[in-house]
Structure formats: C-alpha cells, structure tokens
Known about the structure:
Number of helices: 13
Largest sheet: 6 strands, antiparallel
CATH topology of the largest domain: Transferase(Phosphotransferase), domain 1
Distance between the termini: 93 Å
Number of domains: 3
Strand order of the largest sheet: 1-2-3-4-6-5
Strand content: 5-15%
Structural class: alpha+beta
Shape: elongated
CATH superfamily of the largest domain: Transferase(Phosphotransferase) domain 1
CATH architecture of the largest domain: Orthogonal Bundle
Oligomer: single chain
Radius of gyration: 31 Å
Amino acid sequence: MKCSQCGATIHQEVLFCPECGARIRSSDQLAATSAPLQVLQGRYELRRRLGAGGMGSVYLATDRRLATVQWAVKEMSDATITSPLERQQAQEAFRQEAELLARLSHPYLPRVTDHFEENGRNYLVMEFVPGENLRDYVNRVGLPRPLHEVLRWTAQICEVLAYLHAQQPPIIFRDLKPTNVMITPEGTIKLVDFGIARLFKPGKERDTQAFGTPGYSAPEQYGRGQTDPRSDIYSLGVLMHHLLTGHDPSSTPFRLPPVHLLNPSIPPYIAAAITRATDNDPARRFASVIELQQALFGSSNLVNRTVDPAPVARVNVSMTSPTAAPASTGMATASRWIGIISSGLMTLAIALVALDPIIGGEDVVAGFGVVIALGVILIALIGGVLSVIALVSPNTGQTLHGRRDAAIGFAASAGAYLLCCVLALIVAQING
Length: 432
C-alpha cells in the first residue's frame, strides 16, 4: 500500500510511515484486521517485531486499556545462555535498564512505564519512538553528512548526556552508536538501549565487566580502566567522525584518521574538538560534555535549553559566534604579513635610491636599494600566491577574519609591485 502523505510504499500492517512518520492506520483498524502475535499481562498486544538482537527482540504493541497509545515492548530471552552466571548477569543488566529509565525524564530519552516477567521471559514497556535509527538513516541517504545536520544531532546528544552525567551518581551510557540513536519524524533524537549503562562509582580502578561496541567504545571499556563521563565523550567524538567523514571506526579501533584528511571542508576547530574527544588517554579528552559544547558551539547554555523546533538555525548562529570559530588561518595571516613587509621594504628601497644623489653615495646606497627591491619582488610574489590560495580555501571561509587577512595580503603584495614601478621611474630619471 501507499502512504497518503508522501507516497512511499509501506507494509499493510504499519501504523506509521517510515519515510515521513505520518499515521497510516489507527490501532483500532489494525486490531480489526489482524490478530496480535501475543498478549502480555492481558493488556499489551504485540503487533510486529521492530528489531532483534542476540538477547531478544523489540515489538510494537498496542494497548487494550489505552486504544490510541502504542508501546515498544523489549523482550529478553535467556534461553540460549547455558552458563548460570551469564544468565544472572543478563537478567541483572535488563533489570538495571528498566530501573534506570523508569526514574529518568528527558525529552531525548524514551519514557519507561512498566517491566515484568511472563512465561520465563523479561519484558520492558517503553514509549514507542517513531522514525528510524541513525544507522538506517545514513545507509539510506549516504555519508558523509552535512556539518549543520551533524551539529544539530550533536547538540541534542550533548544535552541528554549532560543530563545523564548530572545524575547522582552519574549515569554513563557506554554504548553510543548509530543504532542506539533514533531520529523522529520531527528531526529530534532519542537515545535507546540502556542495556550496558552503568552508575559511576568513584575510586574504582576499572569496570567489573567489559562492554561496548568495537570502534565506538572507549579503550577503558575493555579492561584498561573505569568508565566515566569521558567514555561517553569518546563515543560521541567517534560518532561525529563517522558522520562527517564516512570512515567506519570499527575498521581501525582507537586509530581514527585525521578528520581534515578525509573531509577538508570541516572547520579546523571542529576537527580539533573531535581529535581531543577521541584521544585514547581519558586525561587528554574534554573533562565534561559542557567543555565539549564550548569547543563546538561556544556556549554551555545548550544544556539548559528546551527543545527547539528549528535547531538548524540555532546551530548555524552558534558557529559564527566569536568564541566558536578561529580568528584566521595560518596561510591568510602569513600572506598578510608578507605583503605588509614587502611594501615596507620596497618603500625603503625607493628611499635609498632617491637619497643617493643627495648624500653623494656614488651609487653605493642606490645599488643597495636596488638589491633590496630585487629580493622584495620574489617575496611579494610568494605573498600574493599565498593570499590567493587563502582566499579560495573553504577553511578560510569558516574563520572570522581569514578573508580579510588574505585580502590585505594580496593588496599589500600588489602594492609592493606598484612601488617597484615607482622605483624604476626614479632610477631611469637619475640615470637620464
């Protein structure tokens, strides 16, 4: 069947269009046309499986008590686990996820309403998040993603991570990756799957268990130390690197290629922030999400903002703030100073040639001035070339004064050549 809003081809039992998020059929219509896969607690009717993993599945469910409400029901099955210890650990992780989410309230987290055991399996009932996860989205639209889009998601992820890290004790997500980031039809994100989240306990040298996704998880999650907020910062930096460059981090765990080599259009301050966030040494990363926000957006106020229906414009404004972007590039600054110095030296050469007849230098002083002028011609040429390169460079366009410095450099280098012409006229007049 076709979606009436966007025309996308969809399955006949889908309640929401996966492309535009529009409601296709009401829960009453669906109940009238198909039988549920299973009914839990005499209330939750499992309609279809949304996803599956090694430990169970997630189902879309309707509610017999609230006909217009849909839930995501997470089922954990330990039937494939033969070790009693591993079964106990899996059940404890599932229980921890339920208890963690039940006491949290944030617009970028799914709301949990119930958890129970039935028929030897554990279930978690949470808010159904329409849309698609970040992995499916980028597989559909391609990589790399535009900077403004990645910064919009990053701003939201920073907000929810700051909220989690501010809990007492702090909650460390530990598994930030594309499949655990949902994008709603409105463009907001929600973090899902808290199965390996943990409470941070100061004083421990390392985590009891090593969990995470290779490539996205920090080195300390593999027995090298204890996870803390900087572990989530590492994962967020890897996620940004993946989205902006298209490089698969699982192919080179803990060894990400420099951002500017894969995508030269990324502003240097963004690339520098990602490099610092993904340092293998936790002590060299940002100490908190707020520090990362300041490096990316120039403000820590993002943590306290409410949900913005138009976050793209907000991020673009932040990118142009004085604290967010570097003042200039090295090439633009160099071209400016080379141009200024070239014009100054050429002025000195003119003065020496003009003063030689007055002071009776017998062409010695004038000759020295001509030698200076010949050297300045080469220096001014270098400055002019650098200024042109800086003017057309996209990196210069991301700075506050880069274009201005490059323009000054070009004008000053051109001025040096004009002064050279003046010097030639003076020499011709003296010799004539």
